[in-house]
Design brief:
The complex is a heterodimer of chains A (78) and B (245).
Chain A: H1 3-21, H2 25-45, H3 49-77
Chain B: H1 3-26, H2 38-50, H3 55-63, H4 65-90, H5 105-127, H6 136-154, H7 156-162, H8 165-188, H9 211-238
Classes of the chains: A mainly alpha (78), B mainly alpha (245).
């Protein structure tokens, strides 16, 4: 394992923990997309570009869906 | 059960689980170690056999194309089931209930700028599925996300115009059906179902890979339409007056 791989591993671990610990949905969504970005960098570092692309796609779709859901929920509660 | 005894039980089971985890991690193979011959064989053979430079595509859409057919129909059946379920509950009465949404300037400008790029990127990922990382699944999802992006910027009306049900449903069915038809076409030429019998083309060019390219395209159409339909159904469900939920 190279140094940069180790660094990205640690960053992914930190960001994943932060996603779990964050209680505010909007901030959690943005942390989640940052986590997806870090994860895709990790997969590129591990020479798996195809998996990295899948992670990017999920990381693009999931926060967008959550944001839309949050907006709809917000509309109904006000 | 008192809190004290619960704490003791929790501590005990956590310690046991922790030990199991440590034991499992110790017995893991070394970092980056790969014992099996499968990918070595594929890496050596697939480029020459299929003129494809993205080996995962060759695996997904050729060597185990029948498996991928199952995966694609999983998505197809899931979306169809969801649409049937929601429409059954919804009935035909309460169609339009458009909501007016305030979108911030930042989202509108940023999103408008990104749409063109995202469409192009999605199309590139689908078309180059046999050459570079990606393919029908990933590219299709990116294309579906542009429609979602347009919803975020322009709201219900623009989204409705882009996702006319009959059109999206037809696209989804056409994508899924084309996959099967490609397989059946191979049968008529005397091969096996989904056997790659088309000319494999030139290495590192768009026409390489034979059926891999076509199946990639069909998958891209199916996946993008499926996700647009999925989102449209959820959106319509959320638009019901709150009293009915």
């Amino acid at each position: 394992m190279t140094v940069i791989q180790a660094v990205v591993f640690v960053l992914v671990a930190i960001c994943g923990t932060a996603v779990v610990l964050m209680r505010e949905p909007y901030r959690q969504t943005f942390l989640l997309s940052l986590y997806g970005l870090l994860l895709s960098i990790l997969f590129v570092m591990l020479a798996a570009p195809d998996v990295a692309l899948s992670v990017i796609v999920i990381g693009a779709a999931l926060p967008l869906m959550i944001l839309t859901a949050l907006r709809i929920v917000g509309q109904h509660s006000t | 059960m008192t809190i004290r005894s619960r704490q003791i039980m929790a501590l005990g089971s956590t310690a046991a689980l922790g030990l199991l985890l440590v034991w499992g991690v110790i017995r893991l193979p070394d970092f980056g170690a790969y014992p099996g011959p499968y990918s070595d064989v594929l890496n050596a053979a697939a480029v020459a056999e299929r003129h494809v430079t993205n080996i995962p595509s060759a695996v997904n859409f050729d060597y185990r194309a029948f498996d991928t057919l199952g995966e694609e129909f999983m998505l197809f059946v899931a979306v169809a089931g969801l649409a049937v379920l929601f429409r059954e509950q919804r009935g035909r009465s309460n169609r339009k209930n458009p909501s007016v949404v305030q979108v911030s300037e930042a989202v509108r400008w940023m999103g408008s700028g990104l749409i063109g790029f995202t469409v192009l990127f999605g199309m590139m990922i689908v078309l180059h599925g046999s050459l570079t990382p990606g393919g029908g699944f990933q590219g299709g999802l990116i294309l579906a996300m542009t429609v979602l992006l347009i919803y975020l910027i322009r709201g219900d009306e623009a989204f409705e115009r882009l996702s006319r049900r009959a059109f999206v449903e037809a696209l989804e069915a056409a994508g899924a059906g084309a996959y099967v038809l490609i397989g059946l076409a191979m049968l008529t030429t005397g091969g096996m179902f989904l056997e790659n019998l088309l000319p494999i083309g030139r290495l590192r060019e768009l026409d390489s890979g034979g059926t891999i390219f076509l199946i990639n395209l069909a998958t891209g159409v199916e996946v993008s339409a499926a996700f647009v339909l999925l989102f449209a159904e959820f959106l319509e469900e959320s638009r019901k007056p709150s009293s009915e939920r």
